[in-house]
Amino acid sequence: MKIPITIEGAREHNLKDINIVIPTDSLVVISGPSGSGKSSLAFDTLYAESQRRFIDCLPLNTRKHFQLPNKPDADRITGLSPAICIEQKAPSFSSRTQLGSITGILDYLRILYSTIGIPHDPITGKPLTRYSSDQIIQEIEGLNEGTRLTLIAPISKLLQDSPLQTLQDFQRLGFLKITLNHTIVDIEDILLDPPTTFEQAGLVIDRIVHRGEQSLSRLADSLETALKISPDLIEILIVHPETREEEQRSYHTLFHNPETGLIIPNLSPKLFSYNSPQGYCPRCEGRGKIEVTEICPECHGERLNPLSRAVSIKIGDTNYTLPQLLTLNFQELAPIISLIPLPSQHKESLNIVIEDLGKRFYYLNLLGLGYLSPDRAGNTLSGGELQRARLAGQLGGGLSGVLYILDEPTRGLHPEDTQKLLSAMQSLRDKGNTVLCIEHDDWIIKHADHIIDIGPGSGPHGGHILAQGTPEEISNNENSPTGAWLSGRNLMPFPPNQGDPIHHVLTLKGATSHNIHNLELKLPLGHFIGLAGPSGSGKSTLVQECLIPAIKNQKQGKTWQSISGNETIDKVILIDQSPIGNNPRSNPASATGLLSIIRQLYAQLPLSKQRGYKADRFTTMSKGGRCERCQGLGYMELDLDFLSSNLVECEACHGKRYNRETLEVTWKGKSIADLLALNISELKDFFRSIPKAHKILSCLDDLGLGYLSLDRAASSLSGGESQRIKIATELSKQIHTKDRKASQFHLFILDEPTTGLHFNEINLLILALLKLKRMGHTVLCIEHNIPLLSSVDYLIDMGPGAGSNGGKIVNEGTLGKIIGDSVSPTAKWLSLPIPLS
Questions:
Q1: DSSP string, 454-504
Q2: Residue 686, helix vs strand vs coil
Q3: In contact, 15 and 45? CB cutoff 8 Å
Q4: Tens-place pLDDT, residues 248-265
Q5: How many CB atoms lie within 10 A of CB 700?
Q6: Whole-prediction pTM value?
Q7: What average pLDDT score do residues 272-301 get?
Q8: How many Å apart are CA 88 and CA 279, to the nearest integer?
Q9: Crossing angle of helices 719-733 and 759-774, rounded to 10°
Q10: What pLDDT is stored for residue 411 in this prediction?
Q11: φ and ψ of 101, to 5 deg
């Protein structure tokens, strides 16, 4: 019997005392506008409670090392299973962390190389050899019967400190003879007349005449004894029966080059770790670079020391070192890994390693990450790539009975890859897990088992469960904003002038970087352009590493040959999802320029003039008007021994951030702190008489950000919210086309602007971008979202695949030209919406 997850009276953040029953062993999607309470339900309620219960179940001596999370604000939660959270927000990886480490692949490969890798002499390149007990016995087995064998364990090192005492110990254990300078002597004689040195001493373990199986069994037992005394080297004195000639053979159990005498220790996984002194390059200490951009000349960027880099595994006809194997992408690795030859003695144990690697490669390819390689630096991965990589690891782990919570897993995915992601999530579900994801993609929503629609608005206007049920039930529910889009009752805007004639074209020739080679890009200026294609097809590379440098430099460079037609572009404005500010005091007011207007306003008020207050009195960045107890932050950091620090409201200003004298200055009954605490929708009326401020607020509200307060910390904003704030700021700066000179048009470049947006918000975003186009600007969107791509004037589709299979412009032109193209990877997903009224 499936026990559902039941939540009663959830009030975390903006949740309005909600009650909900979530089916288990199902794919469940939470949808709704930004800030409506989706994360509050999924992460701050369900995941937080699962973590709290897990830590609370640990033994006391273990639990003391963890900080017990606060109990979520809810009356009752039942049916909750262990939860794994896979968020978009990536940990701050160092440059040392590679994708192979994040996915666990590197750990498995280190086991393989330490177990079956063949080391070579780093100088001569000659393979190093070693003997196992079985190999020694097999070699002796080939000798003629009657061969006399003397098994010797070298003991010179053991006799260094107290030789006579050590020899007496051996004598008590039953050993009677040693070799000294290749001569067999009695231990008793040595004790009576000790030599001055024991440099070439060996303990005689046994003397055997080779008589077939019986003698080999005895040899095996004696060999085991010898290896306990001398684990690294065994010597056998052989007397051949026919010639009576003596031959002494040495058997190294460590890797050894008999020509140069090089001996290396047994291989271990640490030898292949660039985080371990045993494995890393001594020059760069495993970083691969000795400066920010300079490759280490000693390891050539491979991070490992010479010995580690000289170990290889032969796969097919090729010998691969570990660094060489890590440069292959997952598409290349998947078929190779199954061809690794496994020695019979290791086959059973290493088959598990090969199977687990195969599963991980399969799911990484299934999730559209086949173009990446294990040596890809973790800090260069996008949030979507990282989330899918971690999801692939979970799929390969084979867990069941787990609640997986995913944060918009389709981020950065082409529709073709979204289908693969859906299959992966359904696979997790079919293994007996519950998959709960916050998602806006219509394909995922339509194929969910259960949908929870939260809204109706954002912030204080959200937090209600508007509808829940199957996709069909949601589509037919008049109260569901998501259902209105799924059913087709709401449609995205269609530009009224889509397909306007092209008068000016920017042409970039010879674009070359990563998987792009000698590409020609044409952008019709003054148009709304979409740049589409599978993840890893080269879209961001083309724009950020070729186009932008070319426009700014206007000279031949390493990543392009020539550029023309850009004379009318006076500025390139890149609007990505990076934070709007890195200062802890950064907020929407400071990012949009509203704070400067508000400070000037408060400085002009009668009380300010009476007291001589200037605009800088109303800033929290410097002394004067701010609260000095918290230095204008509004909170204090409470440092507790053995616990992580906590943030508490400043007891002096009670979170207002300004001192008492500054707060006494009011406008329309509001101090500056009161004003900044209002949300954008409320502030529009306050600033109706101040056009510049009203225009900024209107642009923010038009983009669906009316729920945000102006003092909201930049660090708490999502990437989508930060990006829309930047778009609104730019919109508010623009003047009408008729007042603009021919050389004052901008190129706006947006990187996946629909990330984190509900259908309603995508609709508002498209309308805002069309405003920029009507002003004469060029808008270029790197995007996968089909509703937005179906609204552009001109589409450039890259592909046909990712990595080495991408890097080409497959098709370009109006939607009418693209739709129906059998080669274009995006064409079959496009549709033409109805024109705007």
A1: EESSSGGG--EEEEEE-HHHHHT-TT-HHHHHHTTSS-----TTTTPPP--
A2: helix
A3: yes
A4: 999 999 998 888 888 888
A5: 28
A6: 0.80
A7: 89
A8: 32
A9: 30
A10: 84
A11: -75, -40
